[in-house]
Design a protein that fits this description.
The structure holds 2 protein chains of 2 kinds. By secondary structure, chain A is an alpha+beta fold. Chain A has 12 helices and 19 strands. Chain A has 3 domains: 1-52 and 171-251, Rossmann fold; 77-169, 3-Layer(aba) Sandwich (Rossmann fold); 255-385, Nucleic acid-binding proteins (OB fold (Dihydrolipoamide Acetyltransferase, E2P), Beta Barrel). Chain A has helices at 42-50, 92-104, 107-110, 114-117, 121-139, 154-166, 184-201, 212-218, 236-241, 246-251, 266-273, 376-385, and strands at 4-13, 16-26, 31-35, 57-62, 65-66, 77-80, 172-176, 204-209, 221-226, 229-234, 258-261, 286-289, 294-297, 305-314, 319-325, 332-336, 349-354, 359-362, 368-369. Classes of the chains: A alpha+beta, B mainly alpha.
Chain lengths: 386, 267
């Protein structure tokens, strides 16, 4: 059990700065996900926590001690790698026993043949084997103990890698894209298992992924990194509904958020939304609409904007409608229920509506403008409560 | 088809002397110098030739010297080359590329160039005419470093990271993770190393005078001078005997040998 505290971590590879003074506090028992596009530095940050890379500046604390000078094995962390990194020449049982053997047995006891003669070795080996078996039973990989990694499927290897990390009961679990080598279906079920594992063990998890679905479903808090910087760190729902930066809004959510230049919507904003800011100051301002926050209505409805359907995608439970509106480059995607609204066919002219409170507004630098466009009702409510 | 013909004829060219040697070792003295050619002897003389080869000269002694020297060299080479190769393949340090360049230079140098300085070195150390003189010059093998480095480089960094987290020391990673994984490379290297030192005549000729310490190739030479004279039957039998262990070892490890030398060619 341990909290982790990063203070001003910086790291460069040659001239490239991959981490720019990152500070971050991870609570004891928390499930924190580092998410971001590839190359954003998230894996490097994880390896710095593990002690596999050394930071150029800043310090790492695990629990109540600074671990900067400590080698990986002394940090009480376990890691699951994207490639699983199982030792191919050892059986599953030996793979899982390695962390315990290296910790519990002395150098002499570890030696082949000679070690058997040292006092206590047999007893230690037996207790290690018992611990390995217990973890293997918990993970359902007990029948595989005698096999080698090459004889296992991807999902089984993943479990063995988790088992090897679990067996020595570390204070912190680090996971570096552990699911990205699995097929889509297996990934969803393993995701649930990792969530359960965290609930059961109650230790701190730091999880790196580029898959936002994993980040959203697993985490207590998500830490979005872009280009070596923390952009926002928040619970998944907050990240989705209340992003601080246009990059956060764009990264989180599938299908991704519709981002439209405000200038393209100026007439609509003025007439339907009663834009609260300076109407002349729309340059560079971007407005984001989540696909499910847009609704389709009949042409000519008051406060709507006209568009033409380009494409309709049926996904069973959902229907994604791609709609072209005037003066925008890309179509807006609207997520609707298959039975909702009018019959939709490509080429049909329809109209779109959105609640002002569902619009996310970002300035030219991408920062979120909290002062949203507001409509008359909101103002009335604000006045009556004042 | 043409390609097969080419391969067959070049194989015949290489195998010719070998077959000739075996053939001679089966013949009585009178048949060896006969003008007419036949592969098989008219009168089988194998038992006599091989018996003489094994009894007149201390051939078993030469063979056991060969085993001791070759295995010691191989063991030292692996113990020394593997950590160096690991450092060159996986660790970051200043001057790494320069050191690797030096290894490549070492790879190019023929052993004969170093004979004189090595002789002087062994003389200063006082180990001339001993097993140590046969072993010491070869314990660092640039080829071994090169081969292991190429293999270690192809293993994933994650494996090394996992081993560090699990508590292995750097030497532990080399000998318990990397080397077992590099088995094809180790086997290929072992065959090359043993073959070249088993057959080495040049250096033992310089370093060894005492007959009891002679490795097989050198032993057979003295055997010709002192014992056999122009008696080629037993000489060929002796040559066949010292060749046999190599042939058997190579055939047994052939699969891994090819695999080891093909490393990296498909990635």
């Amino acid at each position: 059990m341990a909290s982790i505290s990063l203070d001003g971590i910086g790291k460069s590879f040659g001239r490239t700065r991959v981490l720019k003074r990152i500070s971050l506090d991870i609570r004891d028992g928390e499930f924190l996900t580092l998410v971001g596009p590839s190359g954003c530095g998230k894996s490097t940050l994880l390896r710095i926590i593990a002690g596999l890379e050394l930071q150029d500046e800043g310090s790492v604390r695990i629990g109540d001690r600074a671990v900067d000078g400590l080698p990986p094995k002394a940090r009480d962390v376990a890691m699951v790698f994207q490639s699983y990194a199982l030792y191919p020449h050892m059986t599953v049982e030996r793979n899982m026993a390695v962390p315990l053997v290296m910790r519990r047995l002395g150098a002499l006891q570890r030696m082949p043949l000679v070690g058997r003669l040292a006092p206590g070795t047999e007893r230690m080996r037996a207790s290690i084997a018992a611990d390995v078996r217990k973890v293997a039973l918990a993970l359902g990989i007990e029948p595989l103990l005698a096999r080698k990694p090459g004889q296992l499927s991807g999902g089984q290897r993943q479990r063995v890698a988790v088992g090897r990390a679990m067996v020595r009961q570390p204070a912190v679990f680090l996971m570096d894209e552990p699911l990205s080598n699995l097929d889509a279906k297996l990934r969803v079920s393993m995701r649930a298992e990792i969530k359960e594992l965290h609930a059961k063990l109650g230790v701190t998890f730091v999880y790196v992924t580029h898959d936002q679905a994993e980040a959203m479903t697993l985490s207590d808090r998500v830490d979005l990194m872009i280009d070596g910087e923390l952009v926002q760190i928040a619970p998944p729902q907050v990240l989705y509904n209340d992003p601080d930066h246009v990059n956060v809004a764009a990264f989180v959510g599938s299908p991704s958020i519709n981002l439209v230049q405000a200038t393209a919507l100026s007439e609509w904003l003025a007439s339907a939304v009663r834009w609260a800011g300076d109407a002349g100051n729309l340059d560079g301002v971007t407005i984001g609409f989540r696909p499910e926050r847009l609704s389709i209505c009949n042409e000519g409805t008051a406060g709507s904007i006209a568009g033409r359907i380009r494409l309709v995608e049926h996904l069973g439970a959902d229907r994604y409608v791609h709609i072209d509106i005037a003066r925008t480059e890309r179509p807006l995607i609207v997520r609707t229920h298959p039975h909702d609204g009018p019959d939709l066919a490509p080429g049909a002219t329809i109209a779109l509506q959105a609640e002002p409170k569902d619009m996310l507004v970002f300035d030219a630098a991408g920062r979120r403008l909290r002062k949203r466009p507001c409509d008359a009702t909101e103002i009335l409510i604000a006045r009556s409560s004042a | 088809m043409a390609r097969h013909l080419l391969l067959l004829s070049s194989a015949a060219l290489l195998l010719g002397p070998l077959v000739w040697m075996v053939s001679l070792s089966l013949k009585p003295p009178g048949e060896i110098f006969r003008a007419s050619f036949s592969l098989l002897p008219e009168q089988w003389y194998a038992a006599e030739n091989y018996m003489r080869a094994l009894t007149v000269a201390p051939l078993p002694r030469f063979l056991s010297n060969g085993v001791i020297v070759c295995l010691t060299i191989l063991l030292c080479q692996i113990l020394i080359c593997a950590p160096i190769a690991y450092a060159l393949a996986k660790l970051q340090f200043r001057g790494r590329d320069a050191i690797f360049a030096l290894v490549l230079v070492g790879l190019l140098l023929p052993h004969q160039v170093l004979a004189l300085p090595l002789f002087v070195l062994c003389w200063k150390l006082g180990i001339l005419d001993s097993y140590a003189a046969l072993v010491l010059p070869f314990i660092v093998s640039p080829f071994g470093i090169f081969l292991f480095r190429q293999f270690f480089k192809s293993t994933s960094d994650d494996l090394m990271h996992a081993a560090r987290l699990d508590g292995y020391s750097e030497l532990g990673i080399v000998f318990q993770i990397m080397l077992p994984l590099a088995r094809p490379a180790v086997i290929a290297f072992s065959i090359l190393s043993i073959t070249s030192h088993w057959n080495d005549l040049f250096w033992p000729l310089i370093a060894i005078r005492t007959e009891e310490l002679m490795p097989p190739a050198l032993g057979v030479i003295t055997f010709r001078n002192e014992e056999a004279g122009s008696d080629y039957g037993p000489l060929m039998a002796g040559a066949a005997i010292i060749l046999a262990p190599l042939l058997i070892a190579f055939l047994a490890a052939q699969r891994w040998f090819v695999e080891g030398l093909m490393l990296g060619s498909t990635k």
